């Protein structure tokens, strides 16, 4: 202990020594601290309270004679005192225990107040005989329960437990020592230890140290040691260890016995514990002086040392150590801040002590790292690079790595830099740049073993120690492809693994095998990324992998009936179209295989669109042709150079012809496939096809695929577009055959096609008499066009003669003559009927009607009065008519139907769209107009009121 370094980590507060205020009267017998107060008990029975800076607060008389012991409680603002009061009777002891509530003050006189005394208790009774009190300690249990231990000089401890204010207490006695000599049996020190539910009490005498287990009933005593100490040489550490001071050493005790022992000579007058420091006042026998030392036991140093006079009490409050002298002077000693202590150590280059200090006082990690950094800088300046790096490594996580890296970038210190970067990665704090630097260090040092250890570590944490992409990039740049592949595979970065295989090593078969071993979702992603390279070099194998991904191979057997639902979860071939950008033939092969295997794919519309584009395209790249061509070229090679030269041109021409023939054959086969696809993907039961019709039409037009266009137009019932295709190609035979098929009204065709066909021949400008005669046959049969329109249409073709239509015109004139005769007869009949109606109306207006019916039309009984006669010559009993006397029951229904028809016609006359639609759709529009005039629908609006009256009279005559 004499070799421990001494430091001034503490300093005197309030300008050094200060005097206890004069308001504190009498001799100081006892002291206590807590809750921001210092409490002093005097020999005259007064208790004084001092605030921060030892300023007097107030005082009150606690006991009549003297205050022997007191303790300020921490949980509640209570003060427990033991003192001597006036003796009431010889049988009762003068020693009392009082509890004061410092929060409740009662006025005393005019100028002062005293705290409320909530409990007074006589310490000694008949069961607990009086003895000298040598020690006193209070334990605050759950409020309001207190446990008070009072040590006596006879080796006994009186314990009082309970609520003293309500006088609900229990007493029990503990026997510490039974030695006859009172000087060796008096209890000099007490200490409570609470460990969960276990409550224990240390008891110290000059010759022994005991431990009582108070949670046992009765309390069990355990002897810990056969040595003890005097009064004031006992204290408790913050870890509930009992500390006793003897002339030869200071001893620490746990519940199981003696712990560490610190040997330093001298009588220990006072022991204390403050923030992990051991406080000790030692009397030097040789010099006769007292020394106050503050020991830092963890760091083995003396944090403060001071020569003092005779000390009577030692306290700790306000973060300071308070020493009260016998002459009522006081000394406050406070700990310096950490920065001041460290500056003191740094000036002396005591970095090791500084590190131990910050670690022992549980300083924050940033402060510790700053001390380590300064220590590292100190060692670096002394060129002790290895030890400096050891310190810098301990700062990882708090010190910016670039600060250290810049110091060790010199090539001569690359080993230290490598060590730092390794630790940086080990703690998971490395960035991409740090990984790059470390791997570059390995490659510069050619240290393959360390590179293997860094990358291929078997602890399973390698993927978390560095940035994977950076490691792979650096290894690839340094041609460590195997290491890069290992990192990518271990990290599950399949795309990077394949990139190395394909771009750096060119191992296509291995890449395909690796893709096959992946999960379907991962395999799909990698194929999308590197499919272009694989299709270029291994098209068949790549297509096989795609088929496994997009179909149920290997999964349908496991899933059974749920395979249909599983199909919707599979990737679509459309997702992989981009990898076939430069290989359309492979794409066509893949899509054909897929459509042959999967009939109800969710993406069949997109697939059929793509296949149609491939089938109908005129230009496709065929690598097989060039390969075959090269083969032919080699097979035709002559043995001699001269013969090879003479046959070069003929061979080249033959190769070109073979290419053209092969190309035409391939195109024809693809067009056949395209037509089959157009038909098969639009079955009759579907309204819309399984491809985009507009796109299909565009493709057929772009590539001149007539058969496809004709099928699509006919399927969409665009018959005019169908015949337009034949017209463009001047296929007259096909045109007439198409009109026969599509212009038949009996089969739902469009007869107007014949009119379009006739117009086509009329504008053709060449002799097409045979075709025109055939067309006229069907026009005449279905009465599609009037003869005048036929004549006007054919007159535009100068190559046609009148003989072409002579027979047709003759037949039409004969038909027209017959129709004219029929119309003339009908006119005469209608005129006669109209004349008869006019005569009847005139007769009704001018002549009288004679009713000769003798029976009622309704009941057929003899007609008697009152009777009703109608102009329609029907007669009725009035009782048979009921309320309806203005309408003939017999003729009413007919009259209503006529009027309903009239109203309907009038309503239709207002619907102009219906009128024009009938005119347009009718073969003879004039007949529709004539019918409207004949029914009076059109003429009515022009006749005015007179015409209206006339029509009404005609209607009345017909109704009655």
From TrEMBL:
GO terms for biological process: endosome organization; intracellular protein transport; organelle fusion; vacuole organization; vesicle docking involved in exocytosis. CDD domains: RING-H2_Vps11. Residues 950-960 have a biased composition (Low complexity). It is a peripheral membrane protein. Residues 941-960 are annotated as: Disordered. Gene3D superfamilies: Tetratricopeptide repeat domain (1.25.40.10). This is Vacuolar protein sorting-associated protein 11 homolog. Core component of at least two putative endosomal tethering complexes, the homotypic fusion and vacuole protein sorting (HOPS) complex and the class C core vacuole/endosome tethering (CORVET) complex. CHCR repeats lie at residues 392-543, 561-770. GO terms for cellular component: CORVET complex; endosome; HOPS complex; plant-type vacuole membrane. Signal peptide: none annotated. It comes from the Eukaryota. Involved in regulating membrane fusion at the tonoplast and the prevacuolar compartment. Belongs to the VPS11 family. The keyword Transport does not apply. Its main location: membrane. Keywords: Coiled coil, Membrane, Metal-binding, Vacuole, Zinc, Zinc-finger. One of its GO terms (molecular function) is protein-macromolecule adaptor activity. It is found in: Endomembrane system; Vacuole membrane; Prevacuolar compartment membrane.
